[in-house]
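G.,

No rush on this.
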Amino acid sequence: MKDSVQQLYNGLLTCKKAVFFGGAGVSTESGIPDFRSESGIYRTVQEYGVPPEEILSHTFFVKHPDIFYQYYRNYMLHPSAVPNAAHRGLAFLERQGVLTAVITQNIDGLHQRAGSRKVLELHGSIHRNYCMDCHQSFGLDIILRGDPLPRCTRCGGLIKPDVVLYEEALDETVLSQSISQIQEADLMIVGGTSLNVYPAAGLLRYFHGDVGLVLINRDETPLDGRADLVIHHKIGEVFQRLLDFYPSSQSTTSE
């Protein structure tokens, strides 16, 4: 892996504008399981009788909000999780002026907790919630409070997490900003994603940078053949090695 990380470091030195596109694998090293994994799907079917994709759909939320919230609290919320080396490394690269944006499919907010400022959340965030009737905004606390159905403190309406459920469209503003960032980048780093979840995975077609496309994922992806550099390792380990090339990073990323 050392030679591959050296190549990644060289690309970061060469590029003018890098962007990062990440998925569930970025957060699994923080203890947040991927609900799409074989074990996650099996566990959900055993417990609820349906796969997670059905529970996390707009139709299911409307018809069975009580079951939705039971699953959502049990498996989608991990308030004690902390950023790992990948989150911290990306925040460091942004502070260095190398990375211009993090585009993420994750909803956990760990990139912001690590210090990243330009984070484009394609699938929303567990930290934003709103009343479906009066549109009052709420943080995560009202969901964690444990009421079977979280209700608006102003009007009593049902509260919905500001996350993109199956059958719902991505936010057009976030999508447009993500495409612009990718089009303007000359280096794109893709990590912790199988690139099988659309339409998010389709964003890579907008990248035409001349420094290169880097894919970091433990397993193979459908776009490995297109990449200029492929690193099949855990992304946290890769970024920990990468940060070794930056002596100034040690005091700010080891906490």
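When you get to it, here's the other one too:
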Amino acid sequence: MGWVESIQRTINYIEANLLDELTMEQIAKVANSSVFHFQRTFSILTDMSVADYIRRRRLTLAAQELINSDSKIIDLSYKYGYDTPEAFTKAFRKQHGVTPSDARKKRGNLQSYNRLVIQVSLKGAEPMKYKIAEKESFQAVGVKRTYNCKTGENLKNIPLFWDEVNTNGTDGQLFQLNNGEIEGVLGVCVVDESQKDSGLMDYWIASAHIGDVPEHLSSLEIPASKWVIFEVHGAMPHAMQDTWKQIYSEWFPSNPYVPAGTPELEVYSSGDASSEDYYSEIWIPIK
């Protein structure tokens, strides 16, 4: 479980330096990881970005100091990383629902985000259905967007990207083009290894396709890989999110594999994605 311990060690580092100017490069280095892979693992396990965690923890500590000291609000603004009292007040109100002045007067409730402790379940109470398969490289065609993982932009905007594709008919076109080895429409996470510390990732909505690439679409080569393929049963998006958590909190810590770092796939079948009987898959290249 070395990688799990490294995440907890990194959380401890963040907490010890919470009032300093932290960068994602520094944080990922403590975990001995790239910015992308640390941010992705962290967000899967916690449902928030590293930046969100730091912001929430700082504002939690700021609220505690506000009601337990005579420190001026302007001084607390600078101490907890805000350039102006106005910016601090806006962020404080967004998290706590009250202004710093009202909090000092004990008007309203405050919202506390406690220090994270990563707990890993190895009991396997809920069985996971998976298989391991080796596949040759194949072509995927579709559309892509680029997101910044440092800011959590991927967590917020990928669902909007799917909404766009489902609304404008691209989803249906991709199902029609799907004549490759993997059946279904794919969500593909891709990180350029030469830029892995930039925090940028490409996210594709595509399908496996043999043949020419339609003019309005782009193509991506998925490399030959050894894959672990997990079954996902249930309505979207919760079934997919819950399975990702189970993979990282149970399956990887109790198996001898690690992610290979090449594109990962979510595979969506045709049918009613809101149905409890909906079937999909997660494909992770491993080594």
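The chain has two domains: 2-104, 130-285. The CA atoms of residues 147 and 157 lie 8 Å apart.

Enjoy the weekend,
O.
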